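Hello,

I think I submitted the magnesium ion job twice by accident. Can you confirm which output corresponds to this input? Input:
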Amino acid sequence: MEIGAGPHGPGVLVIEPMGNAGRFLVEAAERLGVRLYAATHQDVHDGYPQWLRAALAGLCATDLTDTPRALRDMEAFCRQHAIAGVAPCFELFTPLAALLAERLGLPGNDPRLARAARNKVLMGEAFAAAGIPAPRWAVAHDGAEAHRVALEKELGWPLVVKPAEQGGSWGVSVVEGPDQLAEAVAAARQYTHAQPHGLELDARALIQEYVPGDEYSCDTVVADGVAYPLPVVAKDTTAGRYRIETGHTCPSGLPAPLVRKVQHIAARAALAVGVRNGIAHTEVKIPPDSDTPYVIETGARLPGDNLCEVVEAATGVSEAVAHLQAVLGLLPDTVPSRTDGASIRFLLPERGGVLRQAVIADLPGTHGEVHLRPGAVVPEPTDSMCRIGHVVARAETADAARGLAGRAAARSRVEVG
Ligand SMILES: Nc1ncnc2c1ncn2[C@@H]1O[C@H](COP(=O)(O)OP(=O)(O)OP(=O)(O)O)[C@@H](O)[C@H]1O
Ligand SMILES: [Mg+2]
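Support: Only one job matched these inputs. Its output is below.
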């Protein structure tokens, strides 16, 4: 196998490259000379943007919701195209990627643990078994059961209600008292299938102890079971009932010992959910006056939210390159080559409606993107679907980048009527 051999380099099958990380995988594949193939549904592929279709060396069209069929189709495809690595990308299919890698004898994650990286009930069990600091939790099917188990487990108030399987803060709410609990459980249980594939979800609700404090994320590349920590990133969210990510800044500004602690706990969380060859995205909160990071969740995938861009702008490390290297059984490049700062701010509406206009301010050192066109329906700000656009800033320090991104966001105009 030869890396850097242009279009004849090793082939990697990405299980569903749609979503934010896909574009970074495409760039990384170009840099490494990797041939990138996608496994998805034909109709989902038909809806890919042109740049993504053009970047792919081929398509394995299958039904990702039918595990035996998907494994059969993908195995035959991988053998036919001499695929050397399987890259999970879409969170809900990360267990499928682990099963496929094992079948093919390629580097991959532990299929016996992989469901814990998708399902927050199994994740809670895996964290408890590994002694990882995490909020206490219980499962509930309705409001009455939620009341009972919250009391039994002494979860206290506020508490957090969320779907067992979902992302993007969909169905997640912070509940201040018993009155709102039944409604929150119903909201968390509304997702029975994930679109666009129609994958059936575990529709149970999880109720969790609320962890106060600041929030951070930290990604971990794992190669042959060895964890390589990536930089810690500070995360901002809305306050109140719905916690929507409003921005990320790298580096985090945490003191060095705490950075190492976050990296250590994130690596343990990744290993606990069976990540052995690939990447994991871990989110933690650190309560005030504490130096213990509590893991909110970990996913066996690249981060979303343009975090690949933010981390690379600040440190020179390409998470997508490292991910491809890990799934190919190579040593990942994770050593920072610069010490700058980068920050992303998302433009959120105050309420849902129709987007009248969105103009991003053009400040030196920043660039932005509008996600929706005028006339588009903007959902109520209850999850990340409401975000209208974003601004990325790069500067010499994280504080300067955060300030610059904040100024660009403040000067941008978003009108929703
Ligand atoms: N136990 C908790 N204590 C405090 N805050 C929490 C807790 N669980 C979730 N949150 C808040 O809600 C946000 C979304 O929750 P979570 O990450 O579990 O859901 P998600 O849908 O997987 O999110 P995403 O895909 O947006 O990262 C978290 O980033 C955090 O701000
Ligand atoms: Mg999360």
